[in-house]
Amino acid sequence: xxxxxxxxxxxxxxxxxxxxxxxxxxxxxxxxxxxxxxxxxxxxxxxxxxxxxxxxxxxxxxxxxxxxxxxxxxxxxxxxxxxxxxxxxxxxxxxxxxxxxxxxxxxxxxxxxxxxxxxxxxxxxxxxxxxxxxxxxxxxxxxxxxxxxxxxxxxxxxxxxxxxxxxxxxxxxxxxxxxxxxxxxxxxxxxxxxxxxxxxxxxxxxxxxxxxxxxxxxxxxxxxxxxxxxxxxxxxxxxxxxxxxxxx
Length: 248
Description:
Helices cover 35% and strands 25% of the residues. It has 248 residues and is α/β, with parallel strands linked by helices. It has a domain at 1-78 and 191-239: Rossmann fold, CATH 3.40.50.300.
């Protein structure tokens, strides 16, 4: 069986700045990876490259057995993505936007609307019918972006900070949804700065620092004894400063 994701020497440069350098890793189908790193470590850039939103400077990306550069549409039909900036069409309502997304995947309207109603119900997303996305709260927009990533039944899902701005009750629902997706064989990759969530949710982690891979593997294999994920993270990337302030 082909790997769900294969990155070989993946590199992205913006002028003189290298955002990702020589990243290589492989995920088997059904894996659940937590992609970690400090701000600016290259997480979002990596997700944008593997979902076809950014072209790598060099390296190779294979998704679900397909070369992304050679088969971009075939890959995009089978994946779901929730990008960092959500990329919503703000002058549509939530239902209109999901109708648009579903049609892009060739779904019939009845199927789109049925799945949208189920997703909205699960995520407790009750909005006025004519309320435009531009007037949604940040958390409501995150929920709609998640719905758009899942509505077509993808085989692989990439989520950039899916729990940011989400209330605790809905966070629990999202965790349950992600667990059920993994159990059905969907491969998942998410980024999050909430290490406690990643520690409980993701059996597999990858830690980036300044665009380079610092650690990759099952979380229990990388941790030493009862070490927390936070301590492992700090040990690998370094740079932690004492939090005292001189005037307090």
